[in-house]
From TrEMBL:
Function description: Essential for recycling GMP and indirectly, cGMP.
Residues at which ATP binds: G27, A28, S29, G30, V31, G32, K33, G34
Keyword Nucleotide-binding: yes
UniProt protein name: Guanylate kinase
Organism per entry: Deinococcus cavernae
Length: 240
């Protein structure tokens, strides 16, 4: 059970359904987290947690789909009630993940995916430990990240520079996450996310119960494990 969640004495006893996975994807703004998530999760019955935010909607965004857009006061009221699994401030706006729907989905055996800022992802890891499977989505280079941010045409040059400065620090901390997936080829990155998801589910079984597919997924996931990264690898990204 998520830390801070209290069981309801009137609720039915838990079933023998295996608890769902909690997968947290994060990375620098503009790295393509949303596009990758949609490709990876296409056709899957997972619970995607919609974060709250105080920022203004961008063109084409819908309240309750990309985010739940709220006022600063509504956000602060929710935070005071300990209603967020994590919350953070990013470039002047607040972002937070509500607790209740996540715990409900995990308890019924449904995998849960969070797409949140790096600071929030670290809060989730601190709060939940190994239950949270953290995946850092890496840009192929800082130059490419700048191109993507500029191409969105939703930010001022000053705001883009702030995001890039923050991205450099986040990339250098990528080894703190369990997995690192480079989003330079969408199809390959989505397949790597599927491998991580499959491997983490297989890890709950005894090795003698593994299928050939479990072994293949585990091997693929190990290739994107953060322990394979060196500081030199990360510096190459921020300097290219």
């Amino acid at each position: 059970m998520l830390l801070g969640m209290m069981s309801d004495p009137t609720s039915p006893p838990p079933s023998n359904v295996p608890r769902g996975l909690l997968i947290v994807i994060t990375g620098a703004s503009g790295v393509g987290k949303g596009t990758l998530r949609e490709k990876w999760l296409a056709g899957q019955d997972v619970f995607y947690s919609t974060s709250w935010t105080t920022r203004e909607p961008r063109e084409g965004e819908m309240n309750g789909r990309e985010y739940v857009f709220v006022t600063p006061q509504e956000f602060l009221d929710k935070a005071r009630q300990d209603g967020f699994l994590e919350h953070a401030q990013f470039v002047g706006n607040h972002y937070g993940t509500p607790i209740e729907p996540i715990e409900e989905a995990l308890a019924r055996g449904q995998d849960v995916v969070l797409e949140i800022e790096v600071e929030g992802a670290m809060q989730v890891q601190e709060r939940l430990g190994d239950e949270a499977i953290l995946v850092f989505i890496m840009p192929p280079s800082l130059t490419e990240l700048r191109r993507r941010l500029t191409g969105r045409a939703t930010e001022t040059p000053e705001r883009i520079e702030k995001r890039l400065t923050r991205a450099v620090g986040e990339i250098r901390e990528a080894h703190k996450f369990r997995y690192v997936v480079v989003n330079d080829d969408l199809e390959r990155a989505a397949q790597e996310m599927l491998a991580v998801q499959h491997a983490e589910r297989a890890a709950r079984k005894a090795p003698e119960q593994w299928s050939p597919e479990d072994h293949a997924a585990s091997q693929a996931a190990q290739r994107v494990h953060s322990r394979n990264l060196s500081s030199a690898d990360l510096e190459q990204v921020v300097n290219s």
